[in-house]
Each structure stands twice: as C-alpha cells, then as structure tokens.
From TrEMBL:
Signal peptide start and end residues: 1-21
PROSITE patterns assigned to the protein according to its UniProt record, in alphabetical order: GOLD
Keywords linked to the UniProt accession: Developmental protein, Membrane, Signal, Transmembrane, Transmembrane helix
Name under which the protein is recorded: GOLD domain-containing protein
Residue ranges crossing the lipid bilayer per the database entry: 176-198
Family: Belongs to the EMP24/GP25L family.
Domain GOLD: 31-143
Length: 209
C-alpha cells in the first residue's frame, strides 16, 4: 500500500511538472478565457507569447469571480510577456485574452502560448542556490522537498473539502428528513380534517346517519 502511494505521488509530480503550458489559436476580434480555482495568498506567474500579425493587438486580463481585475496589459508581438499576481482568497480566477483588429484591416488567426505557474513553481531556485551556495543535487533535492510539501498540503485541503462536503450533505439530509416528517404530519392532519368535514356535510344533507 505504501509503494502504491509513492507511485501516485510520483505520477502527480510528473503531471505538475508537464502540465504547465497551453497553446491555441485566437480568432480576429475574438476572446478566449480560461478559468481555474486557486488557493488564497498564492503567487501566480504567467507568461504569454503571441505570434506576430501586423496591425493586430492582443491584450489579457486576470479577474476573480466578483469581477475584481488583478492585472491587465497589452502583449507585444513576437515577444514573451510575463505577469504576476497574488490570489487574495480561495476563488475561481479567470484569464481572458482578447484580439483587436482595426476596422479597415482583414484579421488573421494568432497563435497564443500561455504558461501558468503557481506556488512552488514560482520559486527561483537558482537565486536560492547562489545565496546558500548549494550544489546542483542539493538544489534539486530542495525543489523536490518543496514540491512534496505542496502535494501534501493539497491532499490536506482535499480532505478538508471532503469533510466540509460530508457535513453539508449530512445537514441537508437531516433537514430533508425533518421536512418530510412535517409534510406527512400536515397531510395526515388535512386528511383527518377532510374526513370529519365530509362526515358533517353528509349528515347535514341527511345522506348518512
């Protein structure tokens, strides 16, 4: 079981290491948005690279679910443009990339490369190695240690979310049960009242004794 857990951690490390970059084509005067949940107080680093098309401009915008804009700028053509922001709360953040074409010009598709790093990935281990005079193997071990700690924290957060969801489900089930009992009591009381009412009505009409 322990070896199986090590395999899972190794696979997660590989996924985190490789799933950093996304590439797509942006239509003229189009927009492409990417959403993702981010933890609170985590540094996010992004890098955008745009293929050069004369006359067309590309800009980006980062905002949260409440519409608060963290960063916004125009991306230079043919260059790699970097931006950073820190997530204030646990929320869904959205990165939108816009294309703008002048009215007198016919637009063309542009190739966009977007890379996002957060948490441990944003650390500059070269600067840490120079400051602490670490060997390459020590730097790599430090990076793996930080990455493992980050994975453990993610597991802890997932477990906390699972506990919160379980508590919410149990509370919802209890409320549904109480509401069902209350509804059954109301229906039983209404049926009893209807029986006595009809009985009095039929006696008043002398249909029954």
């Amino acid at each position: 079981m322990r070896s199986f857990n090590y395999v899972i951690v190794a696979l997660l490390v590989l996924v985190i290491e490789n799933a950093r970059c996304i590439m797509f084509n942006l239509e003229p005067n189009g927009r492409k948005c990417l959403k993702g949940e981010m933890q609170a107080h985590i540094l996010q680093q992004g890098e955008i690279e745009v293929s050069e098309v004369p006359g067309q401009t590309v800009s980006y915008e980062v905002k949260d679910s409440k519409g608060h804009i963290f960063t916004r700028d125009e991306v230079p053509h043919g260059k790699s443009w970097k931006f950073t922001f820190t997530s204030e709360t646990f929320d869904t953040y959205e990165i939108c990339i816009y294309s703008s074409v002048p009215p007198h010009q016919r637009g063309a598709k542009q190739e966009i490369t977007l890379s996002i790093k957060h948490g441990v990935e944003t650390k500059n281990y070269e600067a840490i190695a120079e400051a602490a005079k670490l060997k390459p193997i020590e730097v790599e071990l430090k990076r793996l240690e930080d990455l493992s700690a980050s994975i453990v924290q993610d597991f802890v957060r997932m477990r906390q979310n699972e506990e919160q969801m379980r508590d919410t489900n149990e509370a919802t089930n209890a409320r549904v049960l109480y509401f069902s009992i209350f509804s059954m009591c109301c229906l039983l009381g209404l049926a009893t009242w209807q029986v006595f009412y009809l009985r009095r009505f039929f006696r008043a009409k002398k249909l029954i004794e």
